[in-house]
Amino acid sequence: MKWITRERPKIDRIACPWLIKKYVDPEAEFIFVPRDQVLSKAKELDAIPYDIPGVDYTHDHDACTFDYIVRRHHIYDAAIQRMAVIVRGADTDRFDLAPEAAGLWAISAGLSYNFKDDHEQLALGMKIYDALYSWASFVSAEKHTWNPTP
């Protein structure tokens, strides 16, 4: 299936493709277009629009699109649940929700600045979300213990 959203992706528009590929549609194709073309191009290309107002796959009150996909597709993986709070905090400027949210926002903003090609940015972003998933699944309790000797 084709999925379409506005160009210059950041938090949700990178996290959602990662989640969709992993849990909803492994063969998904992602399209980025100017904001004012999303709905018309969605019809033209038979694509599912996401992360824009007025469509099914979008923010719902305080929840972001990532949250919506988790809920709609009944994704109960504990690591995904943990990631959802981080993504929500980063995507809605609620860094108080998870200490990792501010870091995720910073990485996402830097990624968007460094890569002008949306698909190149998405490819690298997918690796970042793979790493975040691994952290949430396997090493979130690990602490950095480096202590310099006096």
Strand ordering within the main sheet: 2-1-3
Round the Cα radius of gyration to an integer and report it. 16 Å
Poorly predicted regions = none
Shape assignment: globular
Largest sheet data: 3 strands, parallel
Query: Structural class from helices and strands?
Result: mainly alpha
**Share of helix, binned:** 40-55%
Distance between the termini: 58 Å
Number of strands: 3
Write up this protein.
- By secondary structure, this protein is mainly alpha-helical.
- It is built from six helices and three strands.
- The chain has a three-stranded parallel sheet, covered by helices on one side.
- Helix 1 packs across helix 6.
- The longest helix has 22 residues.
Write a concise keyword list for the protein shown above:
150 residues, 6 helices, globular, Chromate resistance protein, three-stranded parallel beta sheet
Secondary-structure topology with pairs:
Blueprint: E1 2-6, H1 11-24, E2 29-33, H2 38-45, E3 47-49, H3 65-72, H4 78-91, H5 100-114, H6 118-139
Helix pairs in contact: 1-3, 1-6, 3-4, 4-5, 4-6, 5-6
Protein name: Chromate resistance protein
Organism: Candidatus Opimibacter skivensis
Domain ChrB C-terminal: 3-135
